[in-house]
Amino acid sequence: MAAAFLAFYWWILNRENRTPARWMATAILGTTAAWVVCSQVSVPDLPLTATYSAAMLLALPWVLRRDARFCPALRRFWAWQC
Fold first, then answer.
1. Number of neighbouring beta carbons within 10 Å of residue 51
2. Rounded distance, CA 51 to CA 28, Å?
3. Cβ distance 74 to 62 under 8 Å?
4. More confident residue, 52 or 77
5. Quick one: which of 5, 35, 49, 74 could link to 79 by a disulfide (CB 3.0–4.6 Å)?
6. Mean of the pLDDT values across residues 11-25?
């Protein structure tokens, strides 16, 4: 799950901002001690962190651009700002 989230994280950063910082941000996250340890130990912290972070990253286009295409989906999950 840790490796899949790193690929997803890079993909979102690549989609939103095509600068060299996307590589460095992914490398920093992938090499932090907590990320490496939690990915090797059977604890619920990493799946919770990965799914929550993925949800926040998927909402990024709507937050940055107020993209109306995401409003119906976000209303189902209690985002009333549309």
1. 12
2. 19
3. yes
4. 52
5. 74
6. 85
| Both structure tokens of 67 | 């993209």
Among 49, 47, 57, which residue's Cα sits nearest to residue 1? 47
Q: Which residue, chain included where needed, has tokens 């700002």?
A: 81
Which run of H or of E encompasses 36? helix 33-40
Please state the three-class secondary structure of 2-37 as a single string.
HHHHHHHHHHHHHHHCCCCHHHHHHHHHHHCHHHHH
User: Residue 29's closest CA among 15, 59, 49, 56?
Assistant: 49
Crossing angle of helices 33-40 and 21-31, rounded to 10°: 50
Counting residues of the chain whose pLDDT is more than 90, the rounded percentage is: 0
pLDDT in tens, 38-74: 777 777 777 888 888 888 888 777 777 776 665 666 6
pLDDT confidence bin for 22, thresholds 50/70/90:
confident
